[in-house]
Structures are given as C-alpha cells and as structure tokens.
Amino acid sequence: MTDQRVALHVYDLSRGLARQMSASLLGMHIDGVWHTGVCVYGLEYFYGGGIQAVPPAQVAETYGTPYQVVELGTTQVDQADFTSFLQEIQSRFTAATYNLLSNNCNNFSNEVANFLVGSNIPQHILDLPQQVLSTPMGAMFRPMFEDMQGRMAESIQSHHNPSPIAAPVSRTALPPTKTLASYAQTYISCLPELHVERIAGRLDALKALSPDETSAIQRLMHFATSKDTTQLVPSDSAFWWSLVANAFGAQTPAATFTALCLLRIVLLADIRSPGVVVDTMLMSPVIDQLLQQTQTTLDGPHRILLLSVLLNGLEAPASKAQFAEHLGVWLAFVWGTWQGPATSHSQAEMAACFVLNVCRDIRPSTADYDMIQFALVGGCAEVLDVHASQGALETTATIVERIVAGLGLLLQKDVGARSLAAEVGLVHVLTRLRPKTTALDFHSVLGEVLALI
C-alpha cells in the first residue's frame, strides 16, 4: 500500500494560560498543558474516555489549530491492521484506566507512534505531568489537569460524535462527509475563559458600584463562567448596557478592553436567556463606540474581542436589528482580518464564523443588500484565493471550510450572487482549492458550491 503520513497534533488545554502563569504558580515555566492525537489515514486518533477517531478538522473546530504539528514520518501499516492493533489495546485505554502520570492521552499517542513508525513522541510531552507534580504546588493542580482532559473528551463527543474503535474499518473507508445542509448551526462567542477574570476587578475603578449594582455584576459573571442562566435578572440588562457605555466613555485602552469584554457577555446572556428589551437610547452610544473601534488600529486581543462582540451582537435578540443596520461596516472590519502582515489564527477563525453566520442569515430584504452581497462574494473570493495559493490546509482547514460553506449558503438562495461569483473568478479559485480538500470532510461541500456557480 501507499505510505501514509503520520503526524502528532499537539494541543494546549490551558489555551495559553500555562505560558503566562506557570512560573508564578508552580515555580517553573511550562509552555502548555499538552493533549495529543495521532493523525493518519485521514483521521485523528486520541485517548479521551476511550480510544476515539475523529476527522482532524472537527477537532480543530472545537479547539482551534494545534499548538504544534510534529511530523512523525510515514507508515506502511495497513489501516485494517492498525484498527486491529487498537482493538487489542483498547481495554487499557478506557475512562476507568486513565492515570495522569502513566496512562494519559500522550502515553496512548506514544504507543500508537511506536506501532506505526517505530519511534516515540517528543519526550518533553511525556515528562510534563511528572515535572509539574514534583513541584510543591503541582499536586494542588492535579485535579485541574485531569478535569481539562476529561472536559476535552466530553466536548468532542457531544459536538462531533467521534467513532469509537469497535471493529476493523474497510480499507476504502473515508472520513464522514458534509453537505451545505450541515451548516445550520449559528456560531457565537461563548468561551468562559475569554478574559472574564479581568473584568470584575476593573469595573470598580471605572464607577463606584452600589450593592445592587455589584450583585448585578456578580450574576453576570456567574453566568459567564457557568452558563447557568437561572440567576440572571431581566432588569439587570439596563445597568449592564449603561456600564458598558461608561467604560467606553473613559477613552483608555484598558477601559475599552473592559467594555468589550463586558459587552460580549451581556450579548451572550441575551442569546442564552432571551426576552430582555433594551432601550435603544442605551444601545445607540455603545454601537457608536463600536463603529469608532472598527476604524482604529487594534492589537490582537482587542481585535478578537471586537470580532466576538460583532458575532454575538448580530445574534442577540435585543440587539440584532441595530447591529444589522451597520452590516457593511462590520464586514469591512471582518475582511480586514486577512489584510495584515500576519493573520492570527484565532482572529481568522472568529472572522470566518461571522462570515458564515451572515451568509446563512442574510435576506434580499436586508438594507443595502446589493452592497452586502458584493462584499460577501468579493471577500470570499479574495480570502479563498490566498488559501488556494498556499500549501496544504492542515492548520487552516476549519477557516476555509466556514468560508466555503458560507459562500455556498449564500449562492444557494441567491441567483444574483451566483452570477457575481462567476464574474469575480470564484470558479477558478475553487477549482485550484479543491485538490487541497480531498482528504477533508468538506470536500463534497466545495463541489456543491462549484456546481451552484
């Protein structure tokens, strides 16, 4: 059989917090809390509540691009033989047999790597648990590390229904495919760790809070970290919006950052617990500030926060109509994500979610529809052309998938957009892009989009 590429995908479960805080908390610096999976035969194999097999793009959809991709080599092991090997070892890699020190996801990856290519994964990944737990403070963090691993497995299982290793697969088996009908999900920004801990400490400095106002903020922070809506009080919303406006009014980078953090959560609360009516007199000055932000040179964290606010603002029932009035401005800002010298992967992922949401939800009755249609089709053409001209889509597959899917959903309902797509050269762009998606589960979606044009 043809040699199969074998790669180790390395994820940081702490999402950067380990690099920032490990020295002060542990007395030693670590770059991340590592989870690994082995990519081969078009699937990513990992240990999480059992041995799982998931298309790499789906893992990336939940956890972003891998922190590192380590090329392990190539293998001539047949996929059926590999599946038989996994069946033999699966009793040692179950939820009950997990051990942070000796039987974790990285130990599984190491065993797989040895079977496929005859070599270990990087030693520093295998040694990390022992190094951390040997520090005076490390033992205190053991439950947290184990919980991170467990939540990752549970999240992937709930979102993507990964395939457990139960029987040998066919030698011609392919990763699950998708169609345009697969993209009904609305994307919102709901990660609890996105700067929530930095908000509460700054609010008192911006405005002296009464006991009732402090309670309102505490209810919002509880929702942000737990997703529990039961403590939310509808009457709090007016105070939250006024506090956001007050933070923007301070006109300092720190206050603006706080305002964006707070607004993202306020909008998310409306999405999760709709029914709040917000006075437009409170909302208008906040949107004016957001419009000003789109014309400002923003650093990476500010830009990601603004993208997350726009993502939620167009979905929150109380704000979506007012946010939609400025869709042209938002789109110009979003497409600008790809115009800098070095595009952050996190920014590009957020921007691609925004594009997909807008393409799916926009209707010809939308104000300035012709302009929006042109901005969407033209922007998709430019960004996809960049990816078609680059190498493999290994680290950008999810971004490309969302833009292709969004474009397809727009073309599906708008004949005029199809003509425009042909005029801007999207047939040529997608034809060049298509070979790069052969092993990806949205390859057929790209074919659907080409057929529409």
UniProtKB/TrEMBL annotation:
It holds the Pfam family Peptidase_C97. One of its GO terms (biological process) is protein modification by small protein removal. Residues 4-146 form the PPPDE domain. Keywords: Hydrolase, Protease. InterPro entries: ARM-like (IPR011989), PPPDE_dom (IPR008580), PPPDE_sf (IPR042266). GO terms for molecular function: peptidase activity. Gene3D superfamilies: Leucine-rich Repeat Variant, PPPDE domains. Belongs to the DeSI family. This is PPPDE domain-containing protein. It comes from Saprolegnia diclina (strain VS20). The lineage of its organism: Eukaryota, Sar, Stramenopiles, Oomycota, Saprolegniomycetes.
